Amino acid sequence: MTMLPKIESAAAVPVIAEQTASRQRPTIRLAIIAGSILLALVIPLVASSFVTFQLTEVLIYGLAILGLNLLTGFNGQFSLGHSAFFGLGAYTAAILIHNYEVSYLLTLPAAGLVCFVVGFLFGFPALRLQNLYLALATFALATAMPQILKFHALEGWTGGVQGLVVDQPDPPEFLSVIDGDQWLYYFTLVVVLLLFAAAASLVHSRTGRAIMAIRDNPIAAAAMGINPSLYKTLTFGLSATYTGIAGALSALAVAFVAPDSFTIFLSISLLVGLVIGGVGSIPGCLFGGLFVLYVPNIANSVSTGLAGAIYGVILLIVIFVMPAGAAGFVRLAVSRLRQTPTTSAGGGKP
To answer: pLDDT tens, 60-76?
Structure first.
């Protein structure tokens, strides 16, 4: 009689530990997010202007990868054409600033709106295409975009082969203690944080569950009353919006746009960043941005003549070490760390 409560108490240890861990997860997640944001705010104050510019590019690539992730990772539509939306957003901002002297603050929603319309309209014919056929259609879009930007009838707007020079924004008067690179970094950081938070809210909403249901089983989703055609086209438009805003931010950061900056190789780089960061992971998009920017530079610094081969070797190593991407690697590591104390607590004999 005296041993029964002890047995029940020992068996309840893993359950209690798991409940405690589940209650601690949101707190730990918020602490990690707050610490990451604090670190991101401090880095430009101690880093050089070049490093600040590189980190701005990382944020921009991360935002573009997030746009692709919404389409591919959460909705299951495969795209090789997001360089076209990136370039469309960049040229929208550049044309508004260079030709019409529009404030850079207004170019971001304008680029997002233009890309949403184009993405939404492109999504209609894409409804008839699946998997590799959709990838081929978006590949055609990415291949055609640089040639369209070079078309002589549009040279008055796009600048043709020469491209357009974009004036970088100056920091506000009340932030005169920072330079232009730091201000552009902080401005990009605020935009990226807002859009990442919006994407996380969307994914955890009823609409997000419908989007993922279409990815997992479109027939079952339709049987549940979800309209796959509507959600697919809206997701395509939203994905293009995110990537277009990233393109507009890129135009501000680089202060120049040219057709050859938005080729199919950019689409492939974004896809690589998506896989490396983790398909279906929002925080992993930032790690994908780090990979897209720094790994080609590292490969080129090791050997200019063998940069492509070194890049391929690094890519293979990363995929071998992290087959589920950076997000999957972190989840696996955290899961194993959590199992260790639980096993030791409940594995002993009473």
So the answer is: 999 999 999 999 999 99
Of 3.10.450, 1.10.3470, 2.50.20, 1.10.390, which CATH number belongs to 32-320? Answer: 1.10.3470
Rounded (10°) angle between helices 3-46 and 325-346: 150
Q: How far is CA 310 from CA 38, 123, 306, 316, in A?
A: 34, 37, 6, 10
Rounded to an integer, the average pLDDT of 89-108 is 95
Tell me: the pLDDT tens digits for 173-182? 888 888 989 9
Query: Taking the model in full, what pTM does it have?
Result: 0.89
The C-alpha angle with vertex 46 and arms to 45 and 47, in degrees rounded to 5, equals 100
User: For the chain, what are the domain ranges?
Assistant: 32-320
Tokens of 234: 């809206």
Q: Can you read off the two tokens belonging to residue 179?
A: 């330079």
Which phi and psi (to 5°) does residue 178 adopt?
Answer: -110, 155
**pLDDT at residue 30 is higher than 90:** no
pLDDT greater than 50 at residue 304 = yes
And the tokens for 109? 């929603």
Q: What's the CA gap between 275 and 191, in Å, rounded?
A: 23
